[in-house]
């Protein structure tokens, strides 16, 4: 009997990641650029030295791939890694980490309630902003969590500005990501949501404008090599000096 496909919406994403947690690491490992691109974005934070004395928020850490990328860029930094998916976070905690890494199970919108109120020297948000109900509100919250001059790095898909990038994304999703994810997890819901959410998300110029409108400065964007060129991007921004609160 054919499985009925149920649309997955942003509020249900943490539960869907719970269901996919057992197979997630194996799936992303099949993409040779996945970890390499995360490490490249983390290095683009431009943190001084080895991160000694710095405090970094890894927002939406999943099973810890982004946490590892942050440590690769700043091995001595204090890292607070948060995620809304309990099962993804459980997988992350099973891995080997230095004492400077702390994991917290909460939605990024609830950071203050979890006692993680900064200030942070940097915020690293990989594949997160696209999944938020209120991206503007959360970007402003990140700005307030950063020390003056602190760096925000958003590692994210963005294909709306490029016909080629959209075509590549459609091809890769329907020939690789959705079939492989469905076979590994038994459901296509999360991977179909991934396909749809990337297609609907901000183009590069729109996300740059969003960051500026949310009070960040020095906004710039870089892409990555491989098939993900102009599909995956590093968006860089700074909290302004003084970091004033919203009026």
Automatic annotation (TrEMBL):
Molecular function terms, GO-annotated: methyltransferase activity
Q: Which UniProt keywords apply?
A: Methyltransferase, S-adenosyl-L-methionine, Transferase
Question: Does the keyword section mention Cell membrane?
Answer: no
Keyword Transmembrane assigned? no
Biological process (GO), any one: methylation
Pfam families registered for this protein in UniProt = Ubie_methyltran
TM helices/strands, residue ranges? none
Which named protein is this?
Methyltransferase domain-containing protein
Organism (species) = Saccharopolyspora aridisoli
Phylogenetic lineage: Bacteria, Bacillati, Actinomycetota, Actinomycetes, Pseudonocardiales
